[in-house]
Amino acid sequence: xxxxxxxxxxxxxxxxxxxxxxxxxxxxxxxxxxxxxxxxxxxxxxxxxxxxxxxxxxxxxxxxxxxxxxxxxxxxxxxxxxxxxxxxxxxxxxxxxxxxxxxxxxxxxxxxxxxxxxxxxxxxxxxxxxxxxxxxxxxxxxxxxxxxxxxxxxxxxxxxxxxxxxxxxxxxxxxxxxxxxxxxxxxxxxxxxxxxxxxxxxxxxxxxxxxxxxxxxxxxxxxxxxxxxxxxxxxxxxxxxxxxxxxxxxxxxxxxxxxxxxxx
Length: 264
Prior knowledge:
alpha/beta
């Protein structure tokens, strides 16, 4: 009788243990699936290859906080972050004097700058696999992005498939001259911002080929400007823009909010 009771208890324990293991495995699988789902959000950061601008060959590049701050936000969201440049050559950074900022320093000394230096040529990228594209500023985009046909095609196709398009400061020059399939300018009727004419007059008026705010407005943009150098970002559907370096974090935050809402 004792042997029968011991056997019954053992079988009950094994059954319970097996059920617990199944539940544990199920929880782990769900957690893994959740993490994989979140990691599946993919961001492509498209950067300029220019390193000089204007008649005096002013040194330039991607403005450090405009790539480092969004990178930090996307990384904290556990997104996959890849880099592409227009030519595939190593891009340049500007404003390295701001490296004492924690996110800027982390970008420079961590995996961010390492990944950016390995930016692949945009023409080799299947952009349709990305949930969002982001274009940081600095004066560099004003050199090689206003008329780049491939970039305009990438922006148009990304926007028209309802993926997110983000840009900050001079980065919205990537939106300039983009025509949608219906022939209208992408920015026409859209609420957007960028580095303002007022900011440019106090920063690089002698170097830039044109004033970005004016150019975007001429193509029908509903332009919104905040006080000079203050943080200001705006979302209009799947288009997110920021005014200046202080706005880069806000652009990324708004992009993340939209991306996360798409999961629900």
